[in-house]
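Memo to structure team: turn this sequence into structure tokens by end of day. - J.P.
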Amino acid sequence: MTDAPLILTVGDLVEDVVVRIDGPVEPAADTAVSISRHRGGSAANVAVAVVRAGGRARFVGRIGPDVRGSALVDALRDEGVETICETGPDDGPSTGTIVVIVDGAAERSFLTDRGACVDLGGPDPAWLDGVDAVHLPAYSFSGGRIAATSRRLCELALERGLPVSVDASSTSVLRDLGPGPFWAALTELGVGILFANEAEAHVLSAVEGWPDNGAMLVVVKHGAAPTIVHRPGLGLVAIAVPTIDTVLDTTGAGDAFAAGFLLATFRGHGPVDAAEAAHGHASRVVTALGAGGPERTGLMARARRLR
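Reply from structure team:
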């Protein structure tokens, strides 16, 4: 029997179409770019990062009735992730796709079509069997059936005494949800850890008392600047980020950070040591294109094999 914790992630499994562009787009003309395809989706990224870091992961999500969705599920399973995926009906939405535009500074912007992801039903209480912790992106609380599914899952986890962590995910998602209602929901659902980047934290800063009320540990990433951990009742502490010589794509770095932080916490490390471990996992992601770097088998080769 393994001592590695089992972390459940619930949310999106999508195809990332990564467009690397080093200069401005030429209007009404051709602009040379580099395009590659990868497995993506924040919840799926965290699950893979957990396994690569020595933990166990169970992912729950929904795909469309298409070859791309089947290839993505296979890619997750090849990574060692236990995968529970609904498949939508033939006349339903296709598997989600995100166009990730990566500029010369390795910053990324997203053009998002979540497709079938938002229709995830449930939850099935069996999703929590054997689980040590639950992690959800804020995306999972936004839009479609998945929002109610995720909220109910958190309630079930709370009843079982399971720790829950949430990633703030996106400034646009936070604005759509409303910073106040989002923070209130996290508090009501007993979320123990919130991960956010600097921009997301700025949106949430409009909430009175954030992040000093309650028992929630809040971890705010600032890119290459120190990560700030807000500890309940103890104030904040800054943790330096190691220098990385070459950064190609920051997509998925926050997901790898969350995975590393959660695993270190389960191994008995405090927030400072957990953040240092998380930095190491995130730093390995940003040196390659796509969330998490190369898959064990190329996604497009896998999709061609399924046709």
